[in-house]
Amino acid sequence: MEPLQDGHVLSYSRHENRRQAGVGVLISPAARRAMLKWTPVNERIIYTRFWSAHGKLSIVACYAATNDADEIEKDNFYETLQSVVAEILKHDIICVVGDLKAKTTY
């Protein structure tokens, strides 16, 4: 997690040796105080859990492999995403956000 000058925190997960993929969540100071857990799963998935007025809120932010990626990479992404969601406690509010059909052209 990287603190910013305005009090927000950038929580991110990326590949250490490549400038490719990566996912992040910008967290306000109030949300930071409510944060219970932060887990960078891999360069494409990050999991955060918060206290909220309605119970605990689990957010899974993700950035999927494009259709141009090989089948193994795509399958691995969705299998990992499924395992992260399956581990979230059943009484949590679950929000999966991100780009699940990403394609970038230069």
State the helical fraction. 10-25%
Number of domains: 1
Neighbour order of strands in the largest sheet: 4-5-6-7
Largest sheet: 4 strands, mixed
The secondary-structure class comes to alpha+beta
Cα distance spanning the termini: 29 Å
**Backbone CA Rg:** 15 Å
How many β-strands, per DSSP? 7
Number of helices: 2
Q: What does the overall shape look like?
A: flat
Describe it:
This protein has one domain (2-99). The chain is an alpha+beta fold and 106 residues long. The protein has helices at 29-34, 71-87; strands spanning 2-3, 9-13, 23-27, 35-42, 45-52, 55-63, 93-99. It contains two helices and seven strands; from the N terminus they run E-E-E-H-E-E-E-H-E. Strand 6 (55-63), helix 2 (71-87) and strand 7 form a beta-alpha-beta unit. InterPro entries: Endo/exonu/phosph_ase_sf (IPR036691).
Keywords:
106 residues, alpha+beta, three-stranded antiparallel β-sheet
